[in-house]
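Action item from last week, closing it out:
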Amino acid sequence: MNIGFVGLGLMGRPMANRILGAGHTLYINNRTKEKSASLEAKGAIWCDSPAEVARKTEIAVSMLSTPDVLEDRALGKNGLLEGAKPGFIHVDCSTVSPALTKRLHEHYRSKRCYFLHSPVLGSVPNATDGSLLLFVGGEEYAYSKVQNILGLFGSKIWRFERVDQATNTKLLCNFFIASMISGLAQGLVFAERNSIDPKVFLDILSHSALNAQTYQTKGTSMIEGNFAPRFFLEHMLKDIKLVLDSAKASHTMMPTAEIAEELYTKALDSGFAKEDYSAVIKILRLPS
């Protein structure tokens, strides 16, 4: 098949690479062309705009950083919808707002095209080996056309009737991630300041019902001071804000998300935006 991919960041590149590896013809676009070099070397074809991607494909996948970027790449000048033919399917895997995914769904439908929202849970290693978890919302017909492509990315897919259901499911997952890391960071700093070896504390967790894989992987990197980004801190703050916006719209109280927002905002303001989201611990290690 002729497949498009828009957005070649930390997650987008390994996902696009899996499409190439499956033998499809891949047309790619990114805001900065230099990120396309490794894919072009393997046979991917560069397009100067998302509209050009859409003109040359039946299906396009996007993995983008923010709601504004997705809206621009989909609906803006030279966006995907501008180049789309009737029946074109756009599958977006970004973490964005339910208000945007509902709006995009309506825009695509008005042009006799399809928009599916398929945000993913996992990080770069999962995107590389195809073990992401996917939440797919939208028409069954469109899903049936892209199911095999999505299967290249993930080991498990959950289907939802509406795009906003898939969007909110991903936001809920990221709320749990932010809450877990905020709590873990507090626990590690508490241990350090009360003469408890944080590695011993992680070992205790690993032998208890309190354990989680995230605690072990992120806890070890936090203790070692390794904040090489698997997911940028600035993007985690964006997702927390999206969770709070959606919670407000659905009249849901989420005070833990408000606390996480405060911590991550302080970390962002302290210059940690491009570090891994676990760098939030640096704020808690500052003198009080």
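Closing note: Residues 102 and 137 are 10 Å apart (CA to CA).
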